[in-house]
Amino acid sequence: MFFFSMLQIWKDVGFYLISTAQCKMMPLDFVFVIDSSRSIRTSDYEKVKTFIINLLRFLNVGPNATRVGLLQYGSVVQNEFTVMSMKHLATGTMTGLALQYTMETAFTEEEGARPEELLIPRIAMVVTDGRPQDEVEEVAAQARQAGIQIFAIGVGRVDMNTLKAIGSEPHSEHVHLVANFSQIETLITVFQSKLCERDMCEVVDHQCQHICVSSPASYRCKCRSGYILNPDGKTCRGHSCIQEVFGLVLDVVIVIDGSKSLGPSNFELVKQFVNTIVDAFDVSRTGTHIGLIQYSTKVRSEFSLNQFISARDVKQAVSQVQYMGRGSLTGSALRHMFETSFSPGEGARAGVQRVSIVFTDGRSQDDVSEWATKAKESGVTIYALGVGKAVEQELKEMASEPKEKHLFYTEDFGKMGEITEKLKDTLRICKGTSLNNMCLYFSLTCSLEALSKKIQLLENQNIRK
């Protein structure tokens, strides 16, 4: 396991798991993330290895103390099991990829990280000498939001704004820039001081409403189960419509009606609706995956489940979807969803709950019952959303049981708020349902409420005109 590999690292440099730390430290889960790009000279690469070894001298490493992992990156990310045997990759500088690997793989329990409920601080120390060849700001923000405290060390001509995009706040404590690799050793005493500091939750007036989690040179507030942290970073609240459903892992295929009865302007509203749904989920490599198909006379896969791993990319793809504007073969769309969209080739994952949200505004020109039934029997949960001339019987044939929790209808786009109210009623009586379904009801309520507000705004703008 990744975090226990440090036993071998310590043996290689002449140490053992018996602590040589000169200060009392709290246990940490600590990962070194080392730039191994071609811009680093061989002699400088060796200085980085020496820096790691010297930093390890005062870390209290052990299964019940600080667990340490090591990875390096160039064009790829590579696990390392010993410091001394690290070989210079001398390739690109995919810092964003390394941060994503750190968040999604290195800090998992499978790799040796301790469970989050133990409140062990998770520390990533990134050492880099160049400009990243990929995006770092978003993935670094996701890592910090996931509770990883990031120290960013830049050497040479690294852009300070890039380091600040990576490092945690306050930047004065977490972002460091030295002129060359010979000077990186000067940071040893700096980090020894930081890592040896007292429990920050005891030192400062943290004002955390629920739980204070101390970490080197910093702290963060955490909420008890069933609550989420407010934007102030200190107080907590129960679930509300601005909550994102983090931790909910689903494969979601959204099926949208692109028939001519809809019209271009309403189709744009449907796209907005889709994006509000996307905002409700934790779209990531290990979280929820979303696919989209549009249908009219034909069925068109706009993007598959395995095509995008961020909400931003999904929403951008939705915004580029072109209106088909022809017939309405809902049954064919359901068949495509069942046979193709939820296939392994399209990215459907084994053991992950499958959900389809079907949006229609009129009568189907083919049978919907057969393929809706096959999909549901295979384990797909179907939510049927109807507007305007959508036929109630067809919506019932598509929706999962119980119908009153999976079927929603309103007369026109201007009355989408009616669907919102029905979903709110569902929330009040769904205490006996599973957590995943509860979260999905909740997220759909939020999405529809947000869309209702957008529609109302457009109507008010039209009135002013």
Automatic annotation (TrEMBL):
Domain (VWFA): residue spans on this chain: 29-195, 251-423
Organism: Neogobius melanostomus
PROSITE patterns per the UniProt record, alphabetical: EGF_2, VWFA
Cited Gene3D superfamilies: Laminin (2.10.25.10), von Willebrand factor, type A domain (3.40.50.410)
Location of this chain's protein in the cell: Secreted
UniProt cross-references to InterPro entries, sorted A to Z: ECM_Assembly_Org (IPR050525), EGF (IPR000742), EGF-like_Ca-bd_dom (IPR001881), VWF_A (IPR002035), vWFA_dom_sf (IPR036465)
Keyword Nucleotide-binding: no
Organism lineage: Eukaryota, Metazoa, Chordata, Craniata, Vertebrata
GO CC annotations on file: extracellular region
PANTHER family, per the entry: COLLAGEN ALPHA, MATRILIN-2
Keyword list, A-Z: Disulfide bond, Glycoprotein, Repeat, Secreted, Signal
Pfam families documented for this protein: FXa_inhibition, VWA
Superkingdom: Eukaryota
Protein name per the record: Matrilin 2
One example GO MF annotation: calcium ion binding
